[in-house]
């Protein structure tokens, strides 16, 4: 395989031309997306340069505390983003979202690192940080989709839920169908991606490794692992987040609270 063709500063300047074309098209079509495109471009550059510099330091330190710190920051940011996409009327949701994302990500990573990859050290930043980043971003979306769908379903079907409660159903039984629907909804993007991967799309992990000089079959093996990790993490996240959100809609007397 050929060595990776490195991009220098001039190449990155030329890459900005891609977004320049996008802004020009927005102006031409009067879409009023120019500010958002410029803002997204600036944030992407800044955030990736910062994380690239930070990871250079962490890789050089090769210290478990530094790795744990960056992972905790990543989980916390993912939690805040996911929580902000769920109904603002639900109080005390941050701990539920954090624990749901953390538990699902930690379980999948532990399984992968211990049984499959088996690096020399469990905290090897070369493996655990990129894997966490890919899994965590998807878990964040799963939490947001599942939590928001469940909250919306409960709010829109309050009379039916109260009818179930009046007939002797427990709160869990009364919202079970809505919870299952929310979980299925949160898994739709993941399942769609798995159905067409390699046929319609080539995921970032695969293309990145191939561009880096890895044999395509080896890159495909890692991409399979990533897809399976994402699927399990998203499912566990959705199960935990919907369980936590559903409990926020009932008081200690098992009465439905309007959110």
Structure explained in plain terms:
- With 259 residues, this protein is mainly alpha-helical.
- It folds into 2 domains: 1-61, no CATH class; 63-247, no CATH class.
- It has 9 helices and no strands.
- Helix 1 (9-29) packs antiparallel against helix 2 (34-61), helix 3 packs across helix 4 (94-117) and helix 3 (64-84) runs parallel beside helix 5.
- The mean pLDDT is 91.
- Portion of residues within helices: over 70%
- Radius of gyration, whole Å: 22 Å
Mean pLDDT: 91
Low-confidence stretches: none
N→C terminal distance:
57 Å
Task: Work out the strand percent.
Answer: under 5%
The largest pleated sheet is described as:
none
Number of helices: 9
Order of helices and strands: HHHHHHHHH
Shape: globular
Query: Into how many domains do the coordinates divide?
Result: 2
Q: Give the helix/strand class.
A: mainly alpha
Instruction: Please count the beta strands (DSSP E, at least 2 residues each).
Output: 0
